[in-house]
Amino acid sequence: MRKFYLLIVSFVLVGSVVTAQTITGTVKDAQGKTLSGASVALQKLKDSSIAKLAVTNSSGRYEFPSIQAGSYFLHVTYVGHASKNSASFEYNGAGDI
Q: Global pTM?
């Protein structure tokens, strides 16, 4: 099985006080190729429970809308690659990470 490297190009939090916040990013392999159809789980750091699930689009992008403040990490799987976890991060419900 080939080694799988998760490159989270960015976490972009988009929204305003009126709308819910969204976490987005891009999944790429070790060569920098975007991965379409990768499974991305947003998991709570406290107990590893799944907060949201997404599948990357044709550009390797995923989106998690309506996220509550908390500590999270991402778990990514893709056929033919080993699964990978991101570093943990704190999401405060507004602003940028």
A: 0.76
